[in-house]
Amino acid sequence: MECAIRAEAEERENAQLSPYACRSVDSRGRRRPEPECAIRTAFQRDRDRIIHCKAFRRLKHKTQVFLAPAGDHYRTRLTHVLEVSQIARTIAGALCLNEPLTEAIALGHDLGHTPFGHAGERVLNELNDEGFKHYLQSLRVVDILENKGAGLNLTHEVRNGILFHSKGREHILPNDPQGLPETLEGQVVRLADIIAYVNHDLDDALRAGVIGMEDVPASLIRLIGDTHSRRINTMVRDVICRTRAAGGGRLAMSGVIIEAIHTLRNFLFEKVYETFSVHDDFVKAKKVVRDLFAYLVDNPHCCGDDTCEIGASTPQRRATDFIAGMTDRFALNLYSEIFLPKPWSVL
Q1: Per-residue pLDDT at 251
Q2: pTM of the entire predicted model
Q3: How many angstroms separate the CA atoms of 282 and 128, rounded?
C-alpha cells in the first residue's frame, strides 16, 4: 500500500498540473542516485529535508532588515522565507504549478545568507578572492555543508531554483530568460521574493518608526493599497490574472504594478536601507565580520565543524563557511569573547 501512495500523488500531478508545471517524475534527479520515498514525491522530500536541516533553524536569528531585532514582531530571515513560501504557493496553486517544488525552493533560497544580512555578505565578498554570493553559499549548504559533508542531496530543480533566485535591483520580469530558474516554479519564487520583501520591509520600517505612512508616496498607496495585506493582494492578483490571460507559460504583470514595485523598492533604499539610523549599525556589523574573518583565518581550529567543510581547501574557505553559517547573536557573542576584555574576578 505504501508504494502506491507516491505513485498516486504523481498521477494527480500528471492529471491536474498545468502543461508548464514541472512534474516530480520528470525531475532530472539528484547528484547522487538514491531510492525513492514510498510516500512522498521527490519535491516533497526535498521540502522536508530543508525544513529539518540546521541551516534552516538558524535563519530565525539572522537579520532581514533591522540588525538583531529585539522586538517580537520584526521579520527575521526565517519569517522572510516563510512569507516568500506562502506568496509563492498562492501563485503556484492558482497557476496549477507544482506547489511542493515551489515551497522547497522558497524555503531553501536563503540558507546561505550571512549574519547581519547583505552587510555581512558584502564584507565576505570583499575578503574572498573568489568573491561571495549568498545564493552560491545556499547551494553550498545543501550540497556540502549539511549532514557533515554529505549535504541534503536535493533534486536538480530545487538546486537550480535556489541558485537563480537572486535578482538584486535588476528587472522584476526580465525579457531575457538567461539567469532565470529553469522551472516556472523557480521563477515564481524569484518574483514572490520581491513581493515579500518590499512589503514586509515597509511594514517593519513603519513599525520601527523609521518612516511614517505620510512619507510613502500617496499615489503609490492609492494604487496598491493602504494596508500590508491589501498591497500583497494587489501584486499577487496581478501576477495570477496577467499570467493566466497570457496563456500561463510565462509570468506576466501589468506595467503599472511593475512600476509600483520599482517605486516602492527605490523608496525603501532611499528612506530605509540607506538611512543613518539603519545603516550605522551595519557599519559596525561589517567590522565584526572583518575582525572575525581575520582571526579565524589565523586560527582555523576555532571554526566549528557543524557549519563549515571539514578539510576545506584553504583557511579562508573554512572561515567563510563558518561566518556565513553564524546567526547575528552568535557572531556578536563570539566577537565579544575573542576581542573584548572581561572583568577580572577573585573569589
Answers
A1: 97
A2: 0.95
A3: 19
